[in-house]
Specification:
With 273 residues, the protein is of the alpha+beta class. It is 40% helix and 8% strand. Helix 2 crosses helix 3.
């Protein structure tokens, strides 16, 4: 496995796996693609790591990965997670069992295709809502609930958390101003969870992550439409377009010349130490 946050990333919306997914590829590329396809998310698919497992050298693997990129199964680039609070761009390697054309990868880079399903953490045996309800009786004995009541009321409390409520907010709503005595803790908690439910937050549009693809050969970043097959124009042997620079206006030329003369005069008049 690669370091956390790196390694293989599966492209979204792929077709179900079959025995003929890579039949259109040469035997070497098909074998490597089938191996990568079965690796879990986050697996290290660098040339050095693959060479330790597969019967190919690093040079052959580098060529094969470039061929997989041209065939639409692989793209390499960088990604900045929206709202992450970090200026860092993360190196990414996206693999697709289903071959994609350049237009699909361009849309993927813009965030116009379904996003990857988030990696699901291990499901806890008890939910956050259940744990809070079960702990009510420790701080407020009048609200001691049975295990069955906690399980029955947990979905109501889960909706509070979905609307942004904190544990402190919930405890304040459930425990403040209690009657004396509390005849039915479960009924009181149910009533308060229903009547004091906070409003739904205003919807915020989901921001897709920022992505930049890189040339498979030289690694230079570029717009997806400038990297057909994952290769930049220079590596394909295309001549760079001529650069057209507009001449500076006369006022700007005079200003630059005056600044240069002033710097030279200041240097001549500066005393020597």
């Amino acid at each position: 496995m690669a370091n956390p946050g790196y390694g293989k990333r599966s492209a979204p919306d792929q077709l179900p796996r079959t025995a003929h997914d890579f039949a259109h590829l040469p035997p070497r590329e098909a074998a490597i693609a089938a191996y990568i396809d079965k690796l879990p998310g986050g697996a290290d698919i660098s040339v050095k790591t693959l060479a330790k497992t597969l019967p190919y050298g690093q040079c052959a693997l580098r060529t094969a990965l470039n061929n997989l990129q041209r065939a639409g199964h692989l793209r390499r680039g960088r990604e900045h997670l929206a709202d992450s609070g970090s200026p860092r761009w993360i190196t990414r390697s996206w693999f697709s069992r289903t071959p994609r054309d350049d237009d699909w990868w361009t849309s993927f880079t813009r965030g116009d295709v379904p996003q990857e399903a988030p990696e699901a953490p291990a499901r806890p045996t008890r939910s956050r809502a259940y744990i809070l309800l079960a702990a009510l009786g420790r701080a407020t004995p009048a609200l001691s609930l049975s295990a069955a009541a906690c399980a029955e009321l947990a979905p109501l409390l889960t909706e509070w958390f979905a609307r942004g409520a904190t544990d402190e907010h919930v405890l304040q709503a459930l425990t403040s101003g209690l009657p004396t005595p509390v005849h039915s803790p479960a009924a009181l908690v149910r009533r308060r969870l229903t009547s004091k439910l906070p409003p739904e937050p205003a919807p915020t549009p989901a921001r897709p992550p920022l992505r930049v693809l890189e040339c498979a050969k030289c690694g230079v970043p570029g717009r997806p439409e400038a990297l057909p097959g994952g290769i930049c124009g220079a590596c394909r042997g295309e001549a760079a377009p001529p650069r057209h620079t507009a001449p500076l206006p006369s006022s700007a030329v005079h200003a630059h010349a005056a600044a240069a003369r002033a710097a030279m005069v200041d240097r001549r008049e500066r005393p020597r130490l």
